[in-house]
Specification:
The structure is a single chain. The protein is mainly alpha-helical. The protein has seven helices and three strands, in the order ααβαβαβααα. It has helices at 4-8, 20-23, 41-48, 61-64, 79-91, 93-111, 113-125; strands spanning 30-32, 53-56, 71-74. α3 links the parallel β1 (30-32) and β2. It is globular, with a radius of gyration of 16 Å.
């Protein structure tokens, strides 16, 4: 059981935002519970802001989030596990920091703009 009134002071559901990247410095954890995703840039932005990620294991998200290394992945609809992982992250600042740093390095290595542009150029120029 969770005291909803206490959570309302700590969790903010902001809805769709154009300036989401500028808000990430105020986050402790980045959560994305979409049921369908491609390769969400929001997760890359969160990782570049050294945030741990808690997300559904759907679409391209597992390519971004290394479960237990840069954050946690949960099966879509597994609210119990999502809540357990969120509470665990909120209670453990060292784990948040560790996941955040690991995510930052993964995003810099695998998803930096220069690398992605180069990879797309190679793909477009390749013979298919």
């Amino acid at each position: 059981y969770i005291n909803i009134h206490r959570l309302q002071k700590r969790i903010f559901l902001l809805g769709s935002r154009e300036n989401a990247a500028s808000l990430m410095g105020d986050f402790d954890v980045f959560c994305l519970f979409s049921l369908w995703e491609g390769l969400p840039m929001t997760i890359i932005e969160a990782m570049l802001n050294k945030l741990p990620v808690l997300a559904n294991s759907t679409g391209g998200i597992p390519e971004l989030v290394a479960d237990g290394e840069t954050g946690f992945l949960v099966d879509p609809g597994d609210k119990s596990r999502a809540l357990k992982n969120l509470i665990g992250l909120l209670k453990d600042p060292e784990l948040r920091k560790q996941f955040g740093i690991s995510g930052y390095h993964k995003a810099e290595k695998d998803f930096a703009l220069a690398r992605m542009a180069r990879d797309y150029k190679l793909l477009y120029n390749s013979k298919m």
